[in-house]
Structures are given as C-alpha cells and as structure tokens.
Known about the structure:
The protein is mostly helical and 85 residues long.
Amino acid sequence: xxxxxxxxxxxxxxxxxxxxxxxxxxxxxxxxxxxxxxxxxxxxxxxxxxxxxxxxxxxxxxxxxxxxxxxxxxxxxxxxxxxxx
Length: 85
C-alpha cells in the first residue's frame, strides 16, 4: 500500500509537468485529468490507510486537506482548457 500511495502521489505533479510540456491545451487538459485521477487515488489510499490503522487521524487530516486543495486547483484549470476548445 505504501508503494501504491507513493506512486499515486508522485503521479500528480508528474502528469501536470508532462502535460505542460505537450503541444496545445487539449493535451494539457488530458494530463490534468489524469493528475486529478491520481489525486483521487491518493485521497482514497490515505483514507484506507487511516481506516486500517496505518495512518493516524492527526496525520490524515492535513494530508487529505492538501490533496483536496490540489483537486480544487485542478478543477477550474481543466474546465477552462476544455471550454476553450
């Protein structure tokens, strides 16, 4: 689970960076959607880790808030890029 959580979390900025290096807004939007999916996966894996007792609530809360903030930043960016098509 640790390895999967690390991969999911690392995938968020990796996909943002890859999308930024692509040609055009459509490609960027596609990679931002993938990053959003990785953020969802990260959020779920942290919840699972908490539910299984591997992550304490005082550790879980700030981490999940940060993940949710990333998702809140990605959403309007994705919507803007899709609207401009």
